[in-house]
Design brief:
About 60% of the residues lie in helices and about 0% in strands. It has about 90 residues and is mainly α. The protein has one domain. The two termini are about 30 Å apart.
């Protein structure tokens, strides 16, 4: 896994430089993790999903986008997505 931008001494004032150095997948994973935190904060500090479920979803989305595939909500994916009750 890539190091975070701060550990690489990357200036965070240049978003394109951060994207080039840290990588899309790392930034995407960070954004999804932050999204889960925002949801928890809005839910009184409680995570509505188990840690393993959050990690599985983050892994699925980041790997799918990294390979250039579309995120499909088909038969298998629908089963995975249904475990994330909104």
């Amino acid at each position: 896994m890539e190091q975070c931008p701060a550990k690489k001494n990357i200036s965070l004032s240049d978003p394109l430089q951060v994207m080039r150095q840290a990588g899309f997948q790392h930034i995407l994973r960070l954004a999804m993790a932050l999204s889960f935190r925002f949801i928890a904060n809005a839910n009184g500090g409680k995570q509505p999903w188990m840690k393993e479920d959050r990690r599985t979803l983050i892994e699925y989305i980041s790997e799918t986008l990294e390979t250039g595939d579309a995120i499909n909500v088909g038969s298998h994916e629908r089963d995975v997505a249904s475990s994330f009750a909104w």
